[in-house]
Design goal:
The structure is a single chain. With 415 residues, the protein is α/β, with parallel strands linked by helices. It has 2 domains: 100 residues, no CATH class; 270 residues, Rossmann fold (3-Layer(aba) Sandwich). 43% of the residues lie in helices and 17% in strands. It contains 14 helices and 14 strands. The strands form 3 sheets. Strands 1-2-3-5-4-6-7-13-14 form a 9-stranded mixed sheet, with helices on both faces. A hairpin with a 2-residue loop joins strand 1 and strand 2. Helix 2 packs antiparallel against helix 10, helix 5 packs across helix 6 and helix 10 runs antiparallel to helix 11. It is globular and about 70 Å long.
Length: 415
């Protein structure tokens, strides 16, 4: 019922959004004398603010058309190289002719970016992709919105997530480096452990976990506490809803993205309110640059997707409530996952000093599990003065974290 009410409210608000958008354009026109008055600027700003906070934000595009290598612009083309029902594997292919002209015709380290499947689209890592493109062949998991997948296509759970990671790594082949951002950390570690135990030749050269909930018993944050404060049945009965008509996923049981987004905003409510107030002020003042930065951030932040009920509930149960992986009790398809089987895949963990989603120590726990990995193949790094998103995006990521990742990948390549 909540999902249907949400869709009904969005439909009811549509005429008002259209009116606000029309008003904003009318009052901002240089041919309108009101646009030069304080009253006109305030009304235009209020109209744009109303439209932006009530809009439905669809899936953004990556929009990466080029990168810069040795001060030379190189064209980039997106291509889907592997796919399954709930995910596309995207490759950001750099122009081969330009790469040869630059003398970079030898294969560089392949990097598989495993994007979080926790409400936001993979485009949340657009900045991460852009930062890594000059030095690596970059691939990213582009997870699909469960509301767009018909019920007849089948289910998708945590076990399927692990199977997808293994399949992608086998497709990419040897000399691949995996970077798991936030939520997928435990599943990626499980996938690599299974491949290592099988002596799979496609077992990656290195694995990098960034702000990942490997063991949420360490430095528990507000989301961790919430996950443990209520029984599994509470999540099943209160946050799982059925996709309404006319979405392609009609009748599929999901954890709606708008519920996840509400939780994200509630964690930092004052910060978001202040950001929108400043946005209004910048519109009134005519500070176009600041207003545009606000638009770009929230166009991405407010774009959310639904997760299948089975995937969300198993993640709550196995990762956040029973902590099966760090306890050595995690099973995949009836087979015990043994991180101690990892002896060759180098491990790097990255955490943010001010991370309020994955606390200090939760990602570092991966080192405690990979007990047979030599010290020379392990690196732990804590980035001062950044929160969760600063671990994989922003100026500190580009200037302080990325150089360490680049060196780590170079040092642990098998070629």
């Amino acid at each position: 019922m909540l999902y249907q009410l949400f869709e009904f409210n969005r439909a009811v608000m549509a005429p008002m959004r259209a009116a606000a958008d029309l008003t904003q354009h009318f009052l901002s026109s240089p041919f309108n004398p009101l646009s030069y008055t304080a009253t006109g600027r305030h009304m235009a700003a209020a109209s744009e603010l109303f439209e932006s906070v009530t809009r439905h934000y669809g899936k953004p595009s990556f929009g990466i058309s080029d990168t810069t290598i040795r001060d030379v612009s190189v064209r980039v083309r997106e291509e889907i190289v592997w796919w399954d029902t709930f995910c596309d594997l995207r490759h950001f292919k750099r122009h081969e002719g330009a790469m040869k002209a630059l003398g970079v015709d030898k294969p560089q380290g392949k990097v598989l970016l495993v994007a979080p499947m926790s409400g936001h689209y993979a485009t949340l890592l657009r900045g991460t992709v852009e930062a890594m493109l000059p030095d690596h062949e970059v691939y990213i998991t582009d997870w699909r919105d469960a509301a767009q997948v018909p019920v007849g296509a089948g289910k998708f759970d945590l076990g399927d997530f692990i199977d997808y990671i293994i399949s992608m790594l086998q497709f990419l082949g040897p000399e691949t480096h995996v970077m798991a951002v936030c939520q997928p950390g435990p599943a990626v570690l499980a996938a690599i452990a299974l491949m290592a135990e099988d002596k799979d030749p496609a077992t990656p050269s290195s694995m990098i976990f960034m702000g990942s909930p490997i063991d949420t018993r360490k430095s528990p944050t507000e989301p961790n506490i919430l996950a443990e404060s209520r029984p599994y049945s509470w999540f099943e009965h209160h946050v799982i809803h059925t996709v309404p008509y006319p979405h392609p996923g009609f009748m599929r049981r999901v954890y709606p993205g708008f519920i996840q987004l509400t939780g994200f905003i509630a964690m930092n409510r004052d910060k978001h309110v202040d950001a929108h107030f400043k946005f209004f002020e910048n519109l009134v003042k005519g500070d176009g640059d600041s207003a545009q930065k606000h638009r770009e951030f929230y166009d991405e932040y407010l774009s959310v997707m639904d997760l299948t009920a089975e995937f969300y509930l198993q993640t709550i149960d196995k990762i956040f409530q029973r902590h099966l992986l760090p306890r050595g009790e995690f099973y995949h398809r009836g087979r015990k996952v043994r991180p101690e089987a990892i002896t060759q895949t180098a491990l790097m963990t990255v955490e943010g000093e001010n991370d309020d989603i994955s606390g200090i120590g939760q990602t570092q726990a991966a080192h405690d599990l990979c007990i047979n990995l030599p010290d020379a193949k392990q690196l732990d790094y804590i980035q001062p003065e950044v929160g969760h998103y600063g671990v994989f995006n922003g100026s500190r990521f580009r200037k302080e974290i990325l150089p360490r990742i680049r060196t780590f990948i170079r040092d642990h390549g098998r070629a």
